[in-house]
Specification:
The complex is a heterodimer of chains A (92) and B (269). Chain A is an alpha+beta fold. Chain A starts with a helix and ends in a 9-residue tail after the last strand. Chain B has 269 residues and is an alpha/beta fold. Chain B has an eight-stranded mixed beta sheet with strand order 3-4-2-5-1-6-7-8, sandwiched between helices. In chain B, α1 crosses α12. Chain B is built from 13 helices and eight strands. In chain B, β3 and β4 form a beta hairpin. The chains are: A alpha+beta (92), B alpha/beta (269). At the A-B interface, α1 and α2 of A face α7, α10 and α13 of B.
Chain lengths: 92, 269
């Protein structure tokens, strides 16, 4: 059987466990890199903290705050906050 | 100015300490002044691999807390006089290290040594972040295995975002891939990721490939870093790593399995 294996092995390269490993890694690593570049991991906590501060003074819903960190190329990073205040006379 | 090199990986057990020890000795044997720092606070092991565990009196945390001077804490290697070791403490004090106090120690060491090698703990917690924070270069130690490669990629992300160089917008940390526990035979059989596979995925320059070798366990048993075993394949591979770190171009060895005889090929071996 070793003889048969020897001749078959060359053709099987695609189906080896190593090639499966590489394929899976390429997918997961690309996915994780994508998330990494998108947003720093402190953003959710920062959003929460800012909402808590705002609530001391005005009524805001969870959805009324959007926060974004943009890399404008090179060393310039812009933290963008967008707060939507509710109309006090017509809360809804 | 001293070159600060962190040996890191994310995953544990891939060979960070073995590699730190080998690289420290190797650079010192070339005549450079080298200090090896164990950043694994609470789980000191570099001292054992270096064979100086019985000479530890003071440690890194003692120096940080002002309980000992650097001179008192540094252990001079008995084999190579230009090499010193700064051991980690054995008591787990999570908050002992911070950017300021580590920076101060590194600055002092930078005045006396050419190379500062930081042996990082596993994981991505505070200790690992401190080990990489001040680095100029990083040796990302990786096994040809899925979890190790994935964790190495996480660490590459940290190097690019959480280091001093990243925070100050300086030139990024120079990254090197060190592939350890490599088995050319299993690669040939399609059972292990190849050097090219790992290079494809991590996309950083290759510094060295250390073959899976019985010499590594023997070396740690004896407390004699494997690079001193100049007859062994792993020792030779680490020697090549040193030459490459010093700017030489050295061909990669131990990438192909030794050829089997035609008979054992045909009839199984």
């Amino acid at each position: 059987m070793a003889l048969l294996d020897y001749f078959l092995r060359k053709k099987e390269k695609q189906g080896t466990t190593a090639s499966k490993a590489k394929e899976r890694l390429q997918i997961i690593v690309a996915h994780e890199r994508n998330n990494r570049n998108k947003q720093p991991d402190y953003l959710p906590q920062l959003t929460e903290d800012i909402l808590n501060v705002l609530r001391k003074y005005v009524q805001v819903s969870d959805k009324s705050l959007s926060i974004n960190l943009d890399n404008k190329g090179g060393e310039l990073n812009v933290l963008e906050l967008n707060i939507e205040l509710q109309d006090e006379n017509n809360p809804d | 100015m001293a070159r600060i090199i962190v040996v890191t990986s994310g995953k544990g057990g891939v060979g960070k300490t073995t590699s730190s020890a080998a690289i420290g000795i190797g650079l010192a044997l070339k005549g450079h002044k080298v200090v090896l720092i164990d950043f694994d606070i609470g789980l000191r092991n570099l001292d054992l691999i270096m064979g100086c565990e019985r000479r530890v009196v003071y440690d890194f945390v003692n120096v940080i807390n002002g309980e000992a001077t650097l001179n008192q804490a540094l252990i001079k290697d008995k084999r190579v006089s230009s090499l010193s070791i700064l051991p980690a403490s054995q008591t787990r004090d999570k908050d002992a290290l911070n950017k300021e106090n580590v920076g101060k120690v590194l600055e002092d060491l930078g005045e006396r040594f050419d190379y500062i090698i930081c042996d990082s703990p596993a994981g991505i917690e505070a200790g690992a972040m401190m080990a990489l924070y001040y680095a100029d270069e990083a040796i990302v130690t990786t096994n040809p295995e899925v979890s190790s490669v994935r964790d190495s990629d996480r660490i590459l992300g940290m190097l690019a975002s959480r280091s001093r160089r990243a925070e100050l917008g300086l030139e990024p940390i120079k990254e090197h891939l060190l592939l350890t526990r490599y088995s050319p035979k299993r690669v040939a059989e399609g059972e292990m990721l190849s050097v090219e596979d790992v290079e494809d995925i991590l996309a950083i320059p290759l510094l060295g490939v250390i073959p899976e070798s019985q010499a590594v366990l023997k070396a740690s048993n004896a407390g004699e870093p494997v690079i001193l075993d100049t007859e062994s394949d792993a020792g030779k591979a680490y020697q090549d790593v040193i030459d490459r770190l010093l700017g030489e171009t050295v061909e990669f060895r131990f990438l192909v399995a030794e050829k089997k005889g035609i008979l054992s090929r045909l009839f199984g071996g």
